[in-house]
Amino acid sequence: NGSADVNLVEMKLASNSKLKQNLENQVEIYKKANNTVNALKVILCFSESELAKVSHILSELGLSEEKGVYVIDASPNKISASNAVTH
Length: 87
Description:
Blueprint (H helix, E strand, L loop, with lengths): L6 E7 L5 H15 L4 E8 L2 H14 L7 E5 L14
Parallel strand pairs: 1-2, 2-3
């Protein structure tokens, strides 16, 4: 049953100099090569400038609101949920 529900997951670093080009073309090529319909695009950002860059690229490509595009803020200046104090 699992072979009928195949998803392609493409992970990219925001620092990739060809990020825009890859988001435009690469996933579609991989989908065709793997005979896959669904794809997830995951972009890892490690700084505020990378987040801004990705936001700009996604906007340019019309992907800002697209399902299946995930931007992960992996910047080091966040409080860990396991260490957060709740009242």
